[in-house]
Design goal:
The chain is of the alpha/beta class. The protein has a single domain, classed as Rossmann fold (3-Layer(aba) Sandwich). Helices cover 31% and strands 26% of the residues. Strands 4-3-2-5-10-17-16 form a seven-stranded mixed sheet, with helices on both faces. Strands 1, 6, 7, 8 and 9 form a five-stranded antiparallel sheet that branches. The protein has a three-stranded antiparallel sheet with strand order 13-12-14. Helix 4 (69-84) packs across helix 5 and helix 7 (211-219) runs parallel beside helix 9 (276-285). It binds S-adenosylmethionine (SAM).
Length: 358
């Protein structure tokens, strides 16, 4: 006798989340942006509510998870800004979207390990409304802290994790993609037609309606200092180039990338590349001097990361670990193509890593 093997909603993803999304749809449809928001950030069942999503045992790797060297380089960059501000104390690093704190921990270890005034002055605030870490040196917050007099706002892969609006160009222009439940699966529905300046003439594209406001809010967190942002993205003309007809939305499930957001719902990461022109503009609107984005590979190379590899030649296991990490962090087909964007306020000169763009 054959058994009834139907997995029910579990075939689509996390059953509790799928059920919650279907309930919110209430027999109708919701914009893709809302679908993505629920999939990633539903208050109980969203993907990011559960720890362990990032790393070899999770679904994807971010730079801080590769090796602490990434945090050491970020630490040295922050120390440069601190020097430029006249060595203020306290000096606050605020990290929105800190995840479980890998970047914060490696940066704080670096500063502590060196000893001295920078480490003494440092205060680290992580803004993370979802699964967070346990490093007690970090001040964990759900929401923005009060404005810091001097400091840095640092983020890694925050913007590419924000929910995006999805559009498909039809004969008369871009039409917003909505999502409905057909009884067995989430399927796309046609939303309303939109007018979007400079949008691609064909295919699919995304609009991140939250990025600009998020960058403005980040700039407002400090009076003097810098914003340093690492994210997958392109300047607008590259992001919306004619040849890019399928947009940049990607899903990551157990280290496999694919393009179907309606599978593994709540059990996979969803991400879309960021419009860097928009972020630069927001920095300038906030009164910062913005420096044109550079690749992570160029940034880390100019920062001298290779010297950290060479400095441990007499410890072969560590040497090989660092050499491999350096390759991964600067890989032009992987993490190395992440763009780094910086803006400063009250700091003289071009920050390290951006000399080539000045
Ligand atoms: C791709 S993960 C990156 C985590 C970490 N920065 C890293 O590099 O490993 C994106 C993180 O941003 C957080 N996040 C999303 N929206 C946020 C917001 N509005 N404010 C603060 N954090 C947010 C998510 O909870 C998640 O931890």
């Amino acid at each position: 006798m054959a058994l009834d093997l139907d997995p029910g909603l579990g075939a689509v993803g996390n059953p509790a989340l799928v059920k919650a999304i279907i309930e919110e749809m209430d027999g109708g449809a919701i914009p893709f942006e809302r679908f993505m928001e629920l999939a990633l950030y539903h208050p109980e069942h969203g993907y990011y509510r559960k720890p362990g999503r990032i790393g070899t045992g999770g679904d994807f790797l971010t730079s801080p998870a590769i090796h602490p060297m990434f945090g050491w380089a970020a630490g040295a960059w922050c120390e440069w800004v601190w020097e430029g501000l006249g060595r203020p104390s306290p000096f606050t690093i605020i990290e929105p979207g800190a995840g479980e704190g890998a970047l914060a921990t490696s940066l704080l270890d670096w500063a502590e390990g060196r000893g001295g005034d920078f480490g003494e002055a440092l205060r680290y605030v992580a803004i993370e409304p979802n699964a967070r870490g346990s490093d007690t040196r970090i001040e964990w917050r759900d929401e923005a802290p009060p404005v810091a007099e001097a400091g840095i706002v640092l983020s890694n892969e925050l913007f590419d994790a924000l929910p995006v609006r999805l559009f498909e160009v039809e004969g008369r222009g871009p039409v917003e993609v909505w999502v409905r439940w057909d009884g067995e699966a989430f399927v796309e529905a046609r939303g309303s037609i939109a007018t979007i300046d400079g949008a691609p003439a064909a295919g699919r594209f995304e609009v991140n309606g939250r990025a600009h406001a998020t960058m403005l809010a980040m700039c407002d967190l400090i009076e003097r200092g810098a914003v340093l942002t690492f994210d997958y993205g392109y300047p607008e003309e590259e992001l919306w180039a004619d040849w890019r007809t399928q947009g940049t939305l990607l899903c990551f499930h157990r280290h496999t990338a694919h393009e179907d957001p309606y599978r593994h719902v709540g059990e996979q990461d969803l991400t879309a590349h960021v419009n860097l022109s928009e972020l630069e503009l927001a920095m300038e609107l906030a009164g910062f001097t913005a420096f044109a984005p550079v690749t992570q590979a160029a940034f880390l190379t100019e920062a001298g990361l290779s010297s950290l590899v060479e400095s441990v030649r007499d410890d072969l296991p560590e040497y090989f670990a660092r050499r491999r990490a350096f390759q991964q962090l600067t890989d032009a087909a992987g993490l190395g193509r992440i763009r780094v964007l910086a803006g400063t306020r009250g700091v003289e000169g071009v920050p390290p890593g951006f000399k080539g763009t000045a």
